[in-house]
Amino acid sequence: MILSQTTVKVDGWLVAIDRLAGGSLTLLSLWADPPEVKMATLDEASGDINIITYVCRHNQYPTVGVKHPPAIRLERAIRDLHRLDAIGASDTRPWLAHTAAPYEFLGAEGEALHQIAVGPVHAGIIEPGHFRFTANGEFLVRLEERLGYVHKGIEALMAGAPLDKATKLAARASGDSTVAYGFAFALAAEMALKVAAPPRAIYLRALMAEMERLANHFGDIGAICNDASFSLMHAQCGILRELTLRAAETCFGHRLMMDVIVPGGVARDICEDGVTQLRVLLAEVRRVFPHLTALYDNTASLQDRTVTTGIVKPEYARQFGAGGYIGRASGRDFDARRRPGYAPYDTLKFDVPVLTAGDVNARVWIRIREVEQSLGLVEQIIDSLPDGAIMSDRPATGAGEGFAMTEAFRGDVLVWLRLDDSGHVARCHLRDASWFQWPLLETAVEGNIVADFPLCNKSFNCSYAGHDL
Question: 71 and 219: one domain?
Answer without folding.
Answer: no
